[in-house]
Amino acid sequence: MSALVSHGAFGTGIGSMPGEDLETSLKVVLDALAHDRGLPFLPELPARGVASGMVGRTLALIEGIGVDLQPAGWRLTDAAGVDQRRARSRLDQDLDVLEEQTQGYDGAFKVQVTGPWTLAATAEKPRGDKVVSDHGARRDLAQALAEGVRGHVRDVRRRLDDRGETSRLVVQVDEPALAAVLGGGVRTASGFGRHRTVHPPEASEQLGWVLAAITDEGAEPWVHSCAPGVPLDLLRGAGARGLAVDLDVLDAAAHNALAEALEAGDRVVLGAVSSLDDAALTDTAVVERVLRWLDMVGLDPETVGPLLAVSPGCGMAGATSAWAARALALSRVSATNLP
To answer: Would 44 be classed as within a structural domain?
Structure first.
């Protein structure tokens, strides 16, 4: 696997940030992470409105399926609605800012998209209820997402002046609802019932379409979820070459799966920094936490270091701007202090 950073563990962030100004937020990210042992990313700013959140931004990528915003949330339509067009316009503007702010930067970079199962658990069919309730609808949405992601990767590469000689673009697929989809935990529109469980083979196949599209375009596919109970083996089987998790919610099976991923040469992003304000947290405490985890799973930090990243546990939309900047800096500094 190609090196995203020069050597050793590195620091990064998950995606969402506080505030409403992308230029300011991206500068914070670049100041903290656009250095050796850092992986900067394109922030998501939910405070700007639903079109700028993780779901709205990803629905802006989809071609061939229209969506619009209803009182209950995003709903599939026959043609792109005004809210989808606005989301596309906002994303184009964000990529313009990315292109401007990264002039002269030639390191690795990360963007995020919402995964097919979280989209299916969030968006509704034209006549109501979640897309996840209909086999054909969720298949069509996943396929449309895969094609939309292909175009997005090409667009981001162009903005970064990345001609693909090396794999330095990461696409993180966010799947916070996957565990609920697999466990029959997605509520129906009435709120009184739950949708049927989606079986792992189907979940893996449709997630795999998106991850394969990322790989085909020469980028590195990661999957992130800070929800408990996510089957990490399923993510790897679907094609994820990086797993981003929150250390606070892992069970024994997840610890073992992460160790196996590192031993197999895949990346692991450990969410070891608080996503919300924690004035007492130091880089020494973060390093000790990561080393304790490596010792628990029986791995040598010097051996797996280049595959390991440190990040906040989840997105930071609910943090103060000052903490968001500090948390990203802590992530990178802690990574540099690992053996």
So the answer is: yes
